[in-house]
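Summary for the steering committee. The consortium agreed at its last meeting that each partner would contribute one worked example illustrating the joint modelling workflow. Our contribution is presented below. We chose a case with several input lines so that the handling of multiple components could be demonstrated. No manual editing was applied between input and output; the record is shown as generated.
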Amino acid sequence: MFAAGRILAMMPLCALALSATAQPIKLGELNSYKVFPAFLEPYRKGMELALHEVNAAGGVLGRQLELVIRDDNGTPGDAVRVAEELVVREKVVMLMGTFASHVGLAVADYAKQRRVPFLAAEPLSDRIVWQSGNKYTFRLRASTFMQTAMLVPEAAKLGKRRWAIVYPNYEYGQSATAAFKKQLNAMQSGGLEFIEIAVPLGKIDAGPVVQAMLDAKPDAIFSSLFGADLARFVREGQLRGLFRDRPVFNLLGGEPEYLDPLKDEAPVGWYVTGYPWQAIDTPAHTRFRDAYQARFSDYPRLGSVVGYSAVIAAAAAIRRAGSTDPEKIVTAMSGLGFGTPFGPVNFRAIDHQSTMGAFVGRTAVRDGKGVMVDWHYANGKDYQPDDVVVRTLRPAN
Amino acid sequence: MNAASILPQLLNGLSSASALFLVSVGLTLIFGVTRVVNFAHGSLYMLGAYCAFSVGDLLASVLGRGAASFWVAVLLAALIVALAGALLEKLLLKRLYAAPELLQLLATFAVVLIVSDVVLAFWGPEDLLGPRAPGLAGTVAIFGHPVPEYDLFLIAVGPAVLAALHLLFTRTRFGMLARAASENRVLAAALGIDEARLFTTIFTLGAFLAGLAGALALPREPANLGMDLGVIAEAFVVTVVGGLGSIPGAFLAALIIGLVKALCIALGTVEVAGMAFAFPKLTLVAEFIVMAMVLAVRPHGLLGKPAPTPVGTPLPEQRALVLRPGRREAWVAAALLAALLALPWVADDYAVVLGTDILIATLFAASLQFLLGAGGMTSFGHAAFFGIGAYATALATKAGWALPAALLGAPAAAMLAALLFGWFCVRLAGIYLAMLTLAFAQIVWSIAFQWDRVTGGSNGLVGIWPPEWLAERTHFYAMTLAIVTAALGALAAIAGSSFGYALRGSRDSPLRAAASGIDVARTRWLGFAVAGAFAGLAGGLFAFSKGSISPESLGIARSVDALVMVMLGGLNALFGPLLGAATFTLLADTLARGTEYWRAILGGLILVIVLAFPMGIGGALANLLRRRSTR
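What follows is the complete predicted structure of the assembly.
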């Protein structure tokens, strides 16, 4: 027993010794590390953990995996240049990363032009897999459409008629709002009214916005705010009693990145999508959380899960392809299954969207911290439009 | 909106206006007296918020969470920022007062880069929500509407600061001296006013006010890393709309902008003749629309007087009378061209990609250098023409035009836009002109950002790749090199033509130029259009080189990048744009690749260059050559 354990423990070391002679397989990761550090610093740690685990288990195809990380400065122009550098000079076998939708879309288009596999880890835009979808691009995170779809059934149950909607004025907020209206109209018959307020990203003038919402006397509120905008909205709204007796739905509101800064002022009873890291006790998640905390002495954020899962997905793709040939990797990724801290996930063959889900629940305050309660895991595969619809949305190529 | 909600929305607008005034007044003060375009003002504001958070936390652990720890923290934070401002002035800006004024913009831009990384390293990436103001944490009912007490407090603070500054500047000896120095620096110095000390004091006071504004913002928004760039444009708008150096003007401007924004949100979506118009969406550019309107009617802002020395005008010894290259310059140009031609053979494909980027940036910077150097017109919104060119090319390509036609569309569209904007802009001078170009650029940006159907909205347009025969990186590089070389040649020829002389004449002495029969306004107007057209061509090339285009190509950051490249290379150096573009692109590319805190290092290197070569790298090289030849 003892001896067997020792041999098992040594196996990764043997693999390590073997693979030391072979060239490592390079993954090219590009992201807006300086523009969205709150999400991307945990993301980076998540990648590091996954990389360590993959390599400790012998790497991929008998070779070590290596991450080449670049900052895209948050602009599509720089992102495409960085992608060129990764592909041409670093000779990476695939690209991954990006945060903002316009950067993700630009890199996805680059991937199509240069025939490089691209795993869009974080950008939420529906266009990445639908209108601008292409053969070489796959997306990990649950999209804007999916996350909205996870909240709509709860919203429809309440039977509220008059909705006030506040959203950051760019593609993510616009599509969240459009998807919410459309899906709610489909589930709840007739007579719905929507009052919409678009605010400049990062610059919400919370006083006038909250006042305008009070004046509209809505029955319920739907928001897709996040970050500093959300904090300002929450503070001003609580102060003026906007949330009293009104259900509030907030996309992404339960993500630790945005919930934690609110501390004891976190809203109570809001319907959100997010990540209750303290409370998820599935074996896959517990193992991930323990390993993460042991390595970084910090708790995982949602970014950590995304970064970790992205590297695992990339490793699985290369393993399944049995080669670093880009066309073979792309073929392998279609329908590819892999394990994440949220459980097993696969890339849908129809639109290259992963079935990674999100947690849906209510917010609460425990020990002076914002948490999610009454939550459940919404599996991404259950929140998709009909295949017929997806085919009309996605260009055939 | 109904009648009953007008009052609370008015109060909201007033408190936003007050907060805006607090941010802007320090900038107005600094600009009014020292003429420094302090791009780092937003960074001082952000520093104020972070310091207030940490000092408050520290005090709370000693004194407990109460009124004392909160208000002492606000004051201490403002003092810390004042100290930082004093150091900034003493160590950096003081050395640059003799240099071209735009160089200070470059130096403070470097400070922005450094501060943002320092804050990230010190305070971490997560937003920090501070406490509410003790004693002012609740609301009071005004006509049945809950109004936050802190809003009422802010409404009072703005006028109080205004009154205090008014007294300071009208009733004290210090204020008198400061006004004298801002009216006529040379005369004030001749009368024995210690200008250096005065400037340090003013800068410290301005920084104190920025820190105070940041600290007072903390009860309303978390300290976050976006605060610096979030307020800087707005603060400049307030300063300019109010009139340079006019503190009451800044107050008035903040009032108008605060109220207009609150009104836009309050109006909501309004149906006019069957068309739904969403007023809240206007908040994206409300301040810039206000600025464009004010400057069109009052070229010196609401309460401003004509600026004595327009910003951006080079000092006499820096004015290059003739940009026409001599024989030595021709040799240098030939050698450079040969080196650029050889690039694909001596370096890998990525160097070619980088080379393409540098060439496009060079053309863009050269068009701005033409406007700044030969035309004497400062632009903070030159990216508008770059972006319009890029969008024109992208839309033409989407419409099925071939590459040559699509590329020609870029300068054409940009020139038309420049003719339109230029008609308004060239009537203004100095910083007012610069800010009006910024206003137009922001308006164009917001249209591109929101017009989903045509421009693709915030996502932009993708799939604008060159045809098959240019898809190869080296092929595209060769085409870019040919076009950029031809364009730079044309630009140099225009600068050396009789039109170029007329333009420089209009810059140096509008009166004499007019007396010798030059139509000054028209010459400046055409100069503006020429610069716009060449920027547009650069934009068109950019769209094809990246395969996609987004509103960011029209944004403030890109305009600032162009200014940085021009100043790095040298305002009047013939090869300045190439040197500036190459230095900036290569530095950013190399640093971002290898280092975590690359922005701080980039900022530090820019500071070194600014201090070592105030005339830019190109200017320094030219001096070196000249010295050698006279020896």
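Residues 51 and 77 of chain B are 5 Å apart (CA to CA). Chain B is about 70% helix and 5% strand.
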